């Protein structure tokens, strides 16, 4: 989208949201001017598919909140057009009380003026949050507008039977990862006599920025980043030596080594998942939420989960997760606060991790909770350690989506066209990121 058009679109959404909240925008800790009613039922929106196992897990969790605190709450699951429906409710000055949404949406929602600031002193369990979770709840102004309640971090899924067939071990660094990927591609690891396997599954589509989302694991492991800065001062950084090195290495997996599955540039996660579970690809960097599915379809005995292979700098991996957002204009702010506090309590964190299919809590953010006390599966500890030691959230800026999309477009193009020059394309990307940061009012001058 043209920068000026995009700015107008963002301003339009923000204006709509602000129109819905201006008369009721509360200061930290309350004081919104809205008549309070501690008995009012909390309306909880969760960004998930209605009727799904994820919705059922959230309902179970919210029912446990009511039982523990006495505050009543009702869950509404919405997936399609979630942001549009939220903006409509803002325009009607009737926002839900609680929104459970991705941590990456904090900047956008805070910029729209639909969140109330949270005083961490009112959230007693916040003292036990992981440092990166606390930081992920802050906007560019340094104030807290969200309480992360569930985390996920990536690790490497790898076909253990293929390793055994070829006499290999799981890779621990990029060099070894390339060696294994090459062997998986060229040495018939499944023994069917056909050249039909590939080393690494890659969702390289531009849809929803998937190419960038996946590539971030490698970029951060090389010590690079999409943008660098803090607060309201940021600069593009895709032409840094570290970013160029990471991009070149990742692109060479496709253009030189040929170890990425065919059609990767048009695949988002669903078809990429299928390449791993169907025996087309032998390695896949993704989160813990895929284990129940892969156990069922592929078989837990066919693969293992190991830490992300270390890059030139470290083994940082993408960290994501769910966040509790307290919406502006609520008539039950005490209930809102109690909800956020209970959701990150040891009791709630453990309860939300129980089950075998869908979980209200993927990985705990409360450092008092040991995942091994809930799940008797060492693979979960691999993910928990990855989050604790190497988890890297995307920067919290007014809107992360366009940054992810622009970088996805570039990574996708480099994978699709091996004649393109990496440094030239990254220079163009930095130019686009500069314009975007200026549009968002956070370009360092």
Automatic annotation (TrEMBL):
The keyword Cell membrane applies. Gene3D superfamilies: Periplasmic binding protein-like II. Coiled coil: none annotated. The keyword rRNA-binding does not apply. Residues 1-19 form the signal peptide. It comes from the Bacteria. Pfam families: SBP_bac_1. Keywords: Cell membrane, Lipoprotein, Membrane, Palmitate, Signal. SUPFAM superfamilies: Periplasmic binding protein-like II. This is Lipoprotein LipO. The gene is lipO_1.
């Amino acid at each position: 989208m043209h920068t000026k058009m995009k700015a107008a679109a963002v301003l339009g959404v923000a204006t709509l949201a602000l129109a819905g909240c201006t008369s009721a925008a509360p200061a930290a800790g309350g004081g919104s001017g809205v008549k309070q009613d501690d008995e009012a039922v909390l309306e909880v929106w969760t960004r998930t598919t209605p009727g799904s196992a994820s919705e059922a897990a959230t309902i179970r969790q919210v029912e446990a909140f009511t039982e523990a605190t006495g505050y009543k709450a009702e869950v509404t699951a919405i997936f399609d057009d979630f942001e549009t429906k939220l903006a409509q409710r803002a325009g009607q000055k009737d926002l839900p009380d609680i929104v459970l949404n991705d941590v990456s949406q904090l900047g956008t929602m805070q910029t729209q003026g639909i969140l109330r600031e949270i005083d961490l002193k009112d959230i007693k369990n916040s003292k036990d949050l992981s440092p990166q979770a606390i930081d992920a709840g802050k906007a560019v102004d340094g104030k807290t507008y969200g309480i992360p309640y569930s985390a996920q971090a990536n690790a490497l899924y790898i076909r253990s039977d293929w390793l055994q067939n070829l006499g290999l071990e799981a890779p621990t660094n990029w060099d070894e990862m390339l060696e294994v990927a090459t062997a998986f591609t060229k040495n018939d690891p499944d023994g069917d006599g056909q050249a039909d396997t590939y080393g690494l599954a890659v969702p390289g589509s531009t849809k929803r920025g998937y190419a960038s989302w996946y590539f971030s694991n490698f970029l951060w492991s090389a010590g690079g980043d999409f943008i660098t800065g803090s607060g309201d001062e940021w600069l593009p950084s895709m032409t840094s030596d570290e970013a160029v090195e990471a991009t070149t290495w990742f692109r060479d997996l496709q253009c030189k080594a040929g170890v990425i599955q065919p059609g990767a540039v048009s695949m988002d996660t669903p078809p990429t998942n299928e390449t791993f579970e169907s025996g087309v690809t032998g390695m896949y960097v993704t989160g813990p939420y895929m284990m129940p599915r892969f156990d069922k379809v592929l078989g837990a005995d066919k693969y293992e989960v190991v830490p992300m292979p270390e890059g030139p700098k470290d083994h940082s991996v993408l960290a994501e997760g769910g966040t509790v957002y307290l919406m502006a204009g609520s008539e039950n702010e005490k209930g809102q606060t109690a909800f956020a506090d209970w959701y990150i309590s040891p009791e709630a964190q453990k309860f939300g991790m129980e089950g075998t299919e869908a979980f209200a809590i993927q990985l705990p953010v409360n450092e008092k909770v040991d995942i091994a006390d809930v799940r008797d599966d060492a693979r979960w500890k691999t993910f928990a350690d990855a989050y604790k030691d190497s988890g890297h959230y995307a920067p919290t800026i007014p809107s992360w989506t366009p940054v992810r999309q622009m970088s996805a477009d570039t990574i996708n193009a480099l994978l699709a066209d091996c004649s393109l020059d990496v440094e030239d394309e990254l220079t163009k990307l930095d130019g686009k990121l500069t314009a975007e940061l200026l549009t968002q009012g956070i370009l360092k001058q």
